[in-house]
Amino acid sequence: MISNTRAAGSLDLLRMMLTIRKAEERLASDFKAGLLPGPVHLYIGQEAVATGVCAGLDDRDWITSTHRGHGHFLAKGGDPKAMFAEIYGRSTGICGGFGGSMHVADVSKGILGANGIVGGGIALATGAALATQLDGENRVGVCFFGDGAAAQGVLGEALNVASLWKLPLILVCENNGFSEFSPSNNVIAGDIYRRAEPYGVPSVRIDGNDLDAVLDASRTALDRARNGGGGTLIEALTYRIHGHVEGEQAFLKTRYREDDEIERWRGEDPIERYARRLVDQGEMASGKFAEMEEDIGRMIKDAADCVADDPYPEIGNLERHRLGAE
Amino acid sequence: MISNTRAAGSLDLLRMMLTIRKAEERLASDFKAGLLPGPVHLYIGQEAVATGVCAGLDDRDWITSTHRGHGHFLAKGGDPKAMFAEIYGRSTGICGGFGGSMHVADVSKGILGANGIVGGGIALATGAALATQLDGENRVGVCFFGDGAAAQGVLGEALNVASLWKLPLILVCENNGFSEFSPSNNVIAGDIYRRAEPYGVPSVRIDGNDLDAVLDASRTALDRARNGGGGTLIEALTYRIHGHVEGEQAFLKTRYREDDEIERWRGEDPIERYARRLVDQGEMASGKFAEMEEDIGRMIKDAADCVADDPYPEIGNLERHRLGAE
Amino acid sequence: MMRKRMIHAINDALFEEMERDERVILIGEDVGASIFGDTRGLLDRFGPDRVRDTPISEAVMSGMAVGAAAAGYRVVCHLMYANFIYTAFDAIANQASRLRLMTNGQIRLPVVFMAAGGGGRSNAGQHSDYPHAPVASLGGVYVATPSCSADAKGLLKTAIRTDDPVFFLQPTSRGGEMGDIPEGDHTVPLVSAHVARQGDDVTIVAVGAMLRIAMRAADALAEEGVSVEIVDPRTSYPLDEDVILASVRKTGHLVVVDEARAAGSVANHISALVCEKAFSALRAPIIPVTTPDLAVAYSPPLEKAMIPGPEDVVAAVQRLIKETGQ
Amino acid sequence: MMRKRMIHAINDALFEEMERDERVILIGEDVGASIFGDTRGLLDRFGPDRVRDTPISEAVMSGMAVGAAAAGYRVVCHLMYANFIYTAFDAIANQASRLRLMTNGQIRLPVVFMAAGGGGRSNAGQHSDYPHAPVASLGGVYVATPSCSADAKGLLKTAIRTDDPVFFLQPTSRGGEMGDIPEGDHTVPLVSAHVARQGDDVTIVAVGAMLRIAMRAADALAEEGVSVEIVDPRTSYPLDEDVILASVRKTGHLVVVDEARAAGSVANHISALVCEKAFSALRAPIIPVTTPDLAVAYSPPLEKAMIPGPEDVVAAVQRLIKETGQ
Ligand SMILES: Cc1ncc(C[n+]2csc(CCOP(=O)(O)OP(=O)(O)O)c2C)c(N)n1
Ligand SMILES: Cc1ncc(C[n+]2csc(CCOP(=O)(O)OP(=O)(O)O)c2C)c(N)n1
Ligand SMILES: [Mg+2]
Ligand SMILES: [Mg+2]
Questions:
Q1: Would you say C25 and C46 are in contact if contact means Cβ atoms under 8 Å apart?
Q2: Over residues A166-170, mean pLDDT
Q3: A24, A41, A113, C161: which has the fewest C-beta neighbours closer than 10 Å?
Q4: CB distance from D164 to chain B under 8 Å?
Q5: Is C186 in the active site?
Q6: Is the ipTM reported for this complex over the cut 0.90?
């Protein structure tokens, strides 16, 4: 797999989306099989957003992510093996088994981590953007967050300071229509992208299931940020095909969305749409996709299988993280 | 003095502004004389805002205020004597000497209190607005806050929920040009009133030193709120003639504004402007103002003098506020 | 008597109190869908006025609860996971805990902040705190920490009827646990520790989810001929001093079991209390059994090692006996 | 040696560390104007990139400090009054204190959150907390509590060089106090309690501003023939256990003086420590001297009665002597 999608070709991008998809499908079945110790929030259906935004980033650009963070981790160059091992709670995990699904991070790749606090990544990315501005190397801070997170006041605080200081901050709101089990319009007033306007921060709403649209919008935002033009808010409309959290049927007594809504969105699958586009425009041979899907499926299966039984962390390692221990 | 400015006549409103002015001038000299135990933040120059907004309120409408809260307290019908006693730290104070200048409150008048936490009143007023909505008696919640407070994220959270629930919430931002010692444009990006737009909350910017403009804007907002039309954000442009806090010269090494700026704003004095308007339009005899000023000056002097030496609170009263004490 | 899961006991309490007093309202994220099941059915039963799904806006939510309570309602503010109380902390700490004193009792606040705390589910570092100490540190907020179905119901019903703020901290890992509950209007006074097991040799004070752990340890110790008395404080703030002190005066030995970090435990408060007021009765050191001073780790073996188990309690008691009279 | 006010010692520490390491940056509200004087001159000297006046946005400010630190800077985040740490609490509690563990040490956070705490100035209920316990409760943040100019300088310099978060809590009422400071690069290790006065009969552990109170009490007690040893913990979290225990083992008696509320004090932590690890040396109850469990009241007599004074400490020691061996 590609460890850095920067300036990647279209086939690389397709591979990345498939990598995320296959990894998450594996996690879904692992969860069903009771192999995951904690909760997992899957990104299936939103792959184009992480892939398109991270395509323009490299290891020295920073991202912060959410509780639904596997896709961001992989798209920014995180290692699938190390991610699976982490979610399995193994010592070989990217965080040694200390963090789990909601905290996958790889600082060497510029991934400050998934985050279990909704909106928590917004201020962290703002600080990372401040750091890159001080470094003066045209790096950026990118924050992925959800539509529900847009209700956290810290978003307005970040927009204000990003505007005042012209921070190279890219706020990517993945509007997947739900804040847990609440439809966005029950908890979000008006259009999220417009919330940047009063602060003088440019913003745009795009089709988040159209990889090309994501690539365009993030290229524009990145050029602006890298050239001292300050921040941008991108609202990417998308949809999560799976539940808010795997296994939610077990505790939800009522349904919060209709099957045909899900079906409608399956028809908008970002991976199929992009693959079709590539075939139509002759950038990919028609048989290629199935083959690619199979390769990546195998790669993911191997990655997961080979760490599934890795040892659990040593309990003694807890001491390593106490204040005073170095 | 009038204990309730609702539907008050223009002379009552002028009296109210003068009452606030005289009370604050007394506090300024008391501070200089070392008679005040704690810090005081004076409202001199902003009187038209509190007076104009509270003119449309009665005791069963709720307000929340700020660290600069004497004007709101008086305009909403708070008793000057009880306010002076509080600021002098006496047992006869409106809060028994427990709160002081930054916490003057009179629940019987619908005054939930001045507040020492910048932005702290925003959520409280939102909750009070929710309560009035549930009561179904067409009451409102009004929050006074400053331009600096507009940087607190809770403002966006309140706008979002006020819009979703159509809360009878009136957010009154008194933009006096400074957030402590920072000019607004160093800490606030864009126009504050426009921050309501993305949430679909109506907003307006007005000349906060023009009482008539304040009356108009708040009447519109109140009619909307009392008729189920939801909230409004009013940004009132004004200026604080005194420092951020009395005695600031003692610790500030550099000046943060020019004298001529202050002079320019003295020329915009809301009281003189309104008095002139009344005289010009024959609503007030030209000699009347001086006389009124003298009466109110005397009233305030008497109010302050008569409580200045009231007893301090009994130390035993502390126990009354412990959990479990009734 | 009826047998119910703790989560259903909490649900009953909410039903009964909302039934009993129409001024009781409930706000929180997805209280309609109810991820824990404790608020299930309330929206259907009492409607969207009194049961409100809120946006993800803990700052305004907690402050709104305070404002609505000041304006005459009894507000239950559901914060979901206890770590989110940190997100909501400003209004709890700077407003809820102190408006009573600052207004000299003009404002009383019948607000219940409820949340699920503690580990055991691999929810990892941002979803497993048991933050009773930081709330207790405020002085003005009761902290109720139920250990069983009956107390969960009885304490919550009392909390809702209390005129001061209460933090109701239910144990995340115990929601499914069955317990006997008295029929009818079952209430439990807030500051009323309870002797859960009679014994002569050692007192164990066990908070919340730790009660069952202590019970198990007591059974094991009984076989070694050690007779353990177990005290459940029921509220970790304020403490029911008399019951705790009486038990220690009888046994002369104390072990305190608290799921919180040592530095965030009330074990320290209980030790300090006993060491000040029952020192002469103490025949050995007071041994705390707590989680180490770290966020809870994800991997099951790490989490299990961190959170006190019966074997840790047994070891503490054995150590205490060994050190007796040294 | 040079004599300096504590506030100037803090200012020196900031100058020297920003001079020494260009990756040290300072953010906070009006750090340019500097209401306390501790940040005076830094903006002129180091410029607006490294010294940033922020909007009133504690949530993004504290989270930004975390993000910038994760991205390679040493961040000093000035929160002004310690109560505002509650406003900033989310990022401190849910991010700063635990990112190290959750990422298995990939992220280390050299961040200093600084603020002025405690009463004595009639700043009233929202400006007088001494919130070291709630921060200590997190486990992952050092809490430095200087009592004098030398420690203020030395602790802050060390804090800035530390790779984990530190809460530097300076006493509001002591900024003007003069003290001797060693010349040159004076640093004080974080966990290094200090015996401020040698004695044989009773140990007094006094935190921050309480040190001077304890010293006064010790003088008075000396005249009664009671020889007092005084220990200054310097960091209230983690505690330097050895120094505290050694002193108690020598004297057999302990009084703990803490300006915080009893429920929010580290007096409890110190009592618990001693009662667990030096029990056999204890010859009398441990007596805490703290502020009652209330917000600090405004009126001077009330405030004075709430905050421990020498007479309270003397009374505690006398009580302790009376109860010895009972
Ligand atoms: C501060 C905080 N409040 C509440 C939660 C519980 N929670 C977890 S995910 C979630 C919904 C987030 O919705 P959105 O931001 O749209 O992200 P999505 O799940 O749709 O990807 C909530 C409320 C949390 N984790 N943190
Ligand atoms: C949460 C919080 N942060 C910081 C402060 C310190 N502070 C007191 S007043 C003030 C400036 C407020 O400016 P603005 O809102 O414009 O009100 P104004 O003083 O101009 O009336 C600040 C920063 C505070 N009291 N509360
Ligand atoms: Mg969403
Ligand atoms: Mg202002």
A1: no
A2: 98
A3: C161
A4: no
A5: no
A6: yes
